[in-house]
Amino acid sequence: MNAPLRLYNSLTRAIEDFRPIDPAEVRIYTCGPTVYNYQHIGNMRAFLFADTLGRTMRWKGYGLRHIINITDVGHLTSDADAGADKMEAAAAREAKSIWEIAAHYTDAFKVDVARLNITPPAKWTVATDYIEPMIEFAKTIADAHCYQLGSGLYFDVSTVPDYGRLARAATDVGESRIDPIDGKRNPQDFAIWRTSPPGEQRQMEWDSPWGRGAPGWHLECSVMSRIELGQPFDIHTGGIDHREIHHPNEIAQNQAHCGCTDAEPGFTGAKLWMHNNFLVDRGGKMSKSAGEFLRLQTLIDRGIHPLSYRLMCLSAHYRSELEFTWESALAAQTRLKRLVQAVEKLRAPPDKPSRGTPDRYREAFDAAISDDLNTARALPIVDEALADKALSPADRLALAAEFDAVLGLELTTITRADLRVRPVDASIDEAGIEAKLADRREARAAKDFMRSDVLRDELIAAGVEVMDGDPLGWDWRL
Ligand code: AMP
Ligand code: ZN
Fold first, then answer.
1. For the chain, what is the total number of helices (H) and then of strands (E)?
2. Which of 40, 41, 43 to mutate to test the pocket of ligand 1 (most atoms within 8 A of CB)?
3. Do residues 55 and 267 lie in contact, with contact meaning Cβ atoms separated by under 8 Å?
4. CB 238 near ligand 1, within 6 Å
5. Are residues 253 and 382 both part of a single domain?
6. What is the residue with the minimal CA distance to atom 7 of ligand 1?
7. Atom 11, ligand 1: residue with shortest CA distance
């Protein structure tokens, strides 16, 4: 595909031409979930974005090595080293071991990844599998860049040039939120290693030159990305919150470790840093600390198919904030049904030769996604291509499959019936609905409209919306 791929780089705050270090293998690292709880649908937006990026690389003909980590140690309730350890707190809350907590929420996360048709990475790197290399990494930077306090080994951010360049002005805001830790030289200094408080045994702790304890959260991503991808690699991704603390800290560690800031002033570990904007919910249901929050399962329970949520995310640019509402989720579901129905129709009719060329759709789609992954602009091109009667059904079907390699909506494999997700509170099952609908058709054929209306009311009472004459060809929707 010919359009030059252009991507927004958070480091320069500009859209840049993408030139892979090695076209045979574009290397991408994505900060993964902290497995102390279920992921909310906002978190899943971050992985949908990273998946769209990876799929676009393949569409452009590049090879790909994508790594996503699983954070099972080190992440405190504040990104800036304050508060309780998220994993320890969850273990206490649920009266389970940390390892059970990590296993349970890692599995749940992977279920959601599969439901959303997110391509699994080349490797899920689990932080606790990398403790030794983390200690080795820390040893190489300890003398020149760190200092020890009672609570651990801290990184002195004044020892690297240009600390916080990624965060820019937002760093000042970030600082005011950072709880002071006695003895820190700079407010933004962060823990490389946290030693266990005397007399307190943590469930997860290891011996190190700085005492028994656990690694800081930022350390793990520097170490895993370096080991799995080499540095510099092509692209580092995460949610926009990581632009303020986590990624500036990773960059500082990378600079300290390679010691090559003078020779290569722009060296940060990755060539591009990309961040997705947040999914927001006015009702506050996107915050795990606030109690009840929106999970993918919550959507399914309300009758929303996971791929409808995927389409909802694709309908917005990844750098725009996206507001979640039930109406927008339902609208996405309707849009997906229309797409799936358009594809279904292409399978049935006898093939006619195309009178035009599908290339212009390919090019338009390519131009849209090559423009900083503009999926919002690419989607109407899909609609247009599928509806273009000048193209043979076979050509249109082929386009749908090609586009879907980027969109990941399973357009050529799911059916409208798959998209009928039964809400948990539904009091009637599919067979019951079909039986009532058959009765109703009979009543209508016999012009018994009273009975037909009674049956319709019964269906409505059971939460079934009967759609007479629906252009989508749907008889009902729960
Ligand atoms: P966590 O499990 O908290 O480490 O977060 C996993 C990923 O989700 C990170 O890349 C976060 O930046 C991202 N993230 C957190 N909240 C949201 C949100 N509301 N919308 C989009 N991405 C988010
Ligand atoms: Zn990370």
1. 15, 15
2. 43
3. no
4. yes
5. no
6. 43
7. 239
Nearest Cα residue to 31 out of 288, 250, 253: 250
Q: Are 386 and 451 in the same domain? A: no
Distance CA 118, CA 40 (A): 15
160 and 212 share one domain: yes
Any domain includes 295: no
What is the tally of structural domains in the chain?
3
CA–CA distance, 126 with 220 (Å, rounded to integer): 9
Domain end marker among 391, 418, 445? 418
Dist. CA 429–CA 319, nearest whole Å: 41
Using the atom order of ligand 1, give the atom closest to the CA of residue 32.
6
Same domain, 239 and 327: no
Residues 56-71: tens digit of each pLDDT: 999 999 999 999 999 9
Question: Is the same domain home to 320 and 175?
Answer: no
Name which residue leads in pLDDT, 125 or 198.
125
Residue 227 and residue 126 share a domain: yes
Per residue in 322-354, pLDDT (tens digit) is: 999 999 999 999 999 999 999 999 987 677 888
C-beta separation of 317 from 375 below 8 A: yes
Using CA atoms, how far apart are residues 94 and 1, in angstroms rounded to an integer? Answer: 51
Same domain (yes/no): 414, 428: no
The per-residue pLDDT for range 407-428, each reduced to its tens digit, is 999 999 999 889 988 888 877 8
336 and 198, same domain (yes or no): no
* Nearest-atom index, ligand 1, CA of 34: 2
Q: Could you identify the atom of ligand 1 that is nearest to the CA of residue 71? A: 4
Q: Whose CA is closest to 343, among 388, 391, 395, 400?
A: 400
What is the extent of the structural domain holding 322? 302-418
